[in-house]
What we know:
The complex is a heterodimer. Chain A is mainly α. Chain A has one domain (23-32, 43-258). In chain A, 85% of the residues lie in helices and 0% in strands. In chain A, helix 1 (4-33) crosses helix 8, helix 2 (42-52) packs parallel to helix 6 and helix 6 (140-179) packs across helix 8. In chain A, 42% of the residues are buried. Chain B is an alpha/beta fold. Chain B contains ten helices and ten strands. The A-B interface holds A 124, 127-129, 131-132, 134-138 and B 56, 59, 61, 84-85, 88-89, 91-93, 95-97, 99-102, 112-113, 116-117, 163, 167.
Amino acid sequence: xxxxxxxxxxxxxxxxxxxxxxxxxxxxxxxxxxxxxxxxxxxxxxxxxxxxxxxxxxxxxxxxxxxxxxxxxxxxxxxxxxxxxxxxxxxxxxxxxxxxxxxxxxxxxxxxxxxxxxxxxxxxxxxxxxxxxxxxxxxxxxxxxxxxxxxxxxxxxxxxxxxxxxxxxxxxxxxxxxxxxxxxxxxxxxxxxxxxxxxxxxxxxxxxxxxxxxxxxxxxxxxxxxxxxxxxxxxxxxxxxxxxxxxxxxxxxxxxxxx
Amino acid sequence: xxxxxxxxxxxxxxxxxxxxxxxxxxxxxxxxxxxxxxxxxxxxxxxxxxxxxxxxxxxxxxxxxxxxxxxxxxxxxxxxxxxxxxxxxxxxxxxxxxxxxxxxxxxxxxxxxxxxxxxxxxxxxxxxxxxxxxxxxxxxxxxxxxxxxxxxxxxxxxxxxxxxxxxxxxxxxxxxxxxxxxxxxxxxxxxxxxxxxxxxxxxxxxxxxxxxxxxxxxxxxxxxxxxxxxxxxxxxxxxxxxxxxxxxxxxxxxxxxxxxxxx
Lengths: 259, 263
């Protein structure tokens, strides 16, 4: 029996994982099924967009500016005496558009809005509000999940574009004020090797990250344990799961788009 | 006690051999119960004994592990597709904590299902319906603008009741309607349960362990004990029961006093 226990444990883990993935996929499919009602509930969508998008801008402003600054300082330090100054702008632009912008935006938002989503849905489930929708003959995926999916999938790419711009401005500020690189050199460097697809690549990634954060947040909320502790654990789990999802998805998407 | 004519052969909700487990915990072992059209059936039993689980099976929020649930002749306890929409439109439920939508005002809570299910209604008709429901639960129309967080526990339950009756259900399910309320507010809720039966002629199922409430609103009482219905009877029959477990519960004794019961 003792020898069997690891096998039983592994077996259970596999079954539970398949079950969880199945549930996550079903949540996404149920929500997508309600998308034709999006126009009817545009008010709910706008409210979520403001909550997820507009309210996140101050946090994103600080993180993006400083990320851009740090990336540029590092690029200049690593390339010093090796390449011309203009390549600092090139490196900053490539780093920000392809990786730093989408990745950091998604990670920051997973912490801010992903955990809030899990807590909100968990608390609604605890107070039987989700059951109340069902009892009234209404589909909670239509009124709760769909507006959030649309808001996550559209606002996170929008925020990524804003974050990209802010990070590049951060890089420019540090170049002019501290690194003795002129605006013209930085700007020319940014244009050099710039490809419009770089921007779209980041946007596509952030669309996938946004959808992923939504579905993980909703799933963990629906499966939250009871009480404040249960909701707290669900919030923590969604941040951990979202961070892992973002990093793995980033690698997979890079592999698909660049190779 | 309510004074509504009830046909003993006209069964609205029928439970047969209902079984339900959560993990390794067997909650319902073999529940058999008939609820007649127009009556108020009160299900009593210990906390955590599975009373709310029975209620959730009646409205299809839970599927049983075994047995059958029939509502108005339609079997709803089947994994096959059935018309949940039609069945649920016949039913309203008052949740233990009210389960009001926190982001909506009182009026929006009551109007929500009405607006979604009856898009043909004008805004004035919806607002009139909200006022009518608020009056039915003895709340002034001004309450429509209050947020759920501004309401007391009793008021939340009354608004939740108004929301439950908004779609004019034939069956009303009450999950612990007086739990957490003071005796006077509890009596207000009891009167509303009686009112609903008189005014709307609904079939009601009330789950409670509040015996004052149970004796006041019930046409019949069913006692759930260790996953089974061990006794069903009118208020007088339950008060004079020979069953020691039922006697223990309704008198609130910690231990069973068999001698007391035999006297």
